[in-house]
Write a structure and sequence with these properties.
two-stranded antiparallel sheet, 3 helices, 16% strand, alpha+beta
Length: 75
């Protein structure tokens, strides 16, 4: 991406996609030793979107430092 980020437009697009697709708002917790699926309300997910000013060269480093590694599968 080049130029200024339209933060308001990005938030609206993110909100729209997350509102339409429950799987993007789904978390799995352990309750009483059993896995429980919980679908979060859209506003609680949308509030998690934050922006960071950085140089283009630093984007990949910031993303990999912020996004957690995938959980390992237990077979």
């Amino acid at each position: 991406m080049r130029g200024q980020l339209g933060v308001a437009a990005l938030r609206r697009a993110f909100d729209d996609v997350v509102t339409r697709h429950e799987i993007l708002r789904t978390v799995y917790r352990v309750c009483g030793g059993w896995p429980v699926q919980e679908v979060l309300d859209p506003p609680s997910v949308a509030e998690a979107l934050t922006t960071v000013d950085c140089a283009e060269a630093d984007v990949w480093e910031l993303v990999t430092a912020t996004v957690p590694a995938p959980a390992s599968r237990r077979d």
